[in-house]
Every structure is written in C-alpha cells, then in structure tokens.
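$ ./design --mode recover --in tokens.txt
reading tokens...
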C-alpha cells in the first residue's frame, strides 16, 4: 500500500473514532409504516418494483427522504431497498434518546430496511448538530451510527468538522457562614 493512502486511511480511522456519533437512530421507526408522496407513481407488482417521480417525500416514523425520483424494490422477505436520486436527495432521522437529528445529502441515496444502512453518493454529506462530514461516498448505519467516508477516486480527500462539546460546569460550592455570638 502506498504511504499516502496508508496515511489517509489512518486519518480517516482517527476521525471515525473521535466523531461523536454514539447513540442509535430512533428504534421505533423500523416498526412504522412507510408513507410515500409524489407527483407520479408506477407500480409493477409482479417485479415488486415501485417508482415514484416528482417531489417525492418518503416518511417512516422520524425517518424522512426527499428526492426527484425514488425506486423501491421489495424482496421475498418483505425488506425494502430504496434508491433516491435528485439534485440533492435528502435523508433525515431522529436519534434515539436525544432531541437531535442526523441529516444527509447526496445525488443518490440508497437505503436498505434489511441492513438499516444508508449510502450517500456524489456530493455526500452527513450532519449531526454542528458536526459535519463530507466525501464522495458515505455509508451510515442507522442502527449503530457508524460512518465510513471515502473521497473522490483521484484525490481521496474527505472533510470533517467536529465541534467541541459543551462540558457541564460543576455548580460552585456553597459556603455556609455562621455568626458566633460573643
């Protein structure tokens, strides 16, 4: 392996370790029905493929996708595989036990209900609060909130902005003053 690529992999590994995504996505989402709105829809029941076009919005609990086009396929076990495309397609999901959302963008977003993973391609970006990662391809697990970020093939560059977290300052110690009577 060449030294530059090795160094880049080390930097990405460090970023993934310190990138503070530790809670899980909203667990209840996977038990909610999927709702899809669009301007047009084509359903092929025999092939288990549905295509939605024009201002597409998919929601499942707190999970939300928007796109110009969305193709949903279903396997024999009932798992869904969604491919959202657009300039830019978006993803948003509430984090479990937190009042925060994870948001992502890309020209193509792929989501699998079987693996609960989201792949963002081309102009890929994922944000949580003020933290932000960018690259050519981002794989995100909604179960574990683990990210894998790759740069463009020629440059291999990714970007991350990680904001300092506010630490809770301990309350000042109370002092008790007593008066001694002579």
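writing sequence...
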């Amino acid at each position: 392996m060449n030294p530059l690529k090795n160094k880049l992999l080390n930097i990405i590994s460090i970023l993934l370790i310190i990138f503070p995504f530790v809670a899980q996505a909203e667990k209840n989402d996977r038990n909610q029905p999927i709702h899809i709105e669009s301007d047009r829809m084509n359903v092929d029941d025999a092939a288990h493929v549905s295509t939605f076009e024009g201002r597409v919005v998919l929601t499942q609990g707190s999970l939300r996708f928007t796109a110009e086009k969305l193709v949903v396929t279903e396997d024999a076990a009932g798992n869904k595989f969604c491919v959202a495309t657009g300039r830019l397609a978006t993803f948003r999901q509430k984090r479990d036990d937190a009042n925060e959302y994870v948001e992502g963008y890309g020209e193509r977003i792929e989501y699998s209900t079987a693996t609960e993973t989201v792949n963002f391609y081309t102009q890929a970006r994922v944000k949580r609060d003020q933290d932000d990662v960018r690259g050519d391809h981002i794989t995100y697990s909604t179960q574990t909130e683990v990210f894998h970020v790759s740069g463009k093939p020629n440059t291999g560059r990714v970007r991350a902005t990680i904001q300092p977290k506010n630490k809770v300052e301990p309350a000042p110690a109370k002092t008790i003053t007593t008066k001694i009577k002579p």
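exit 0
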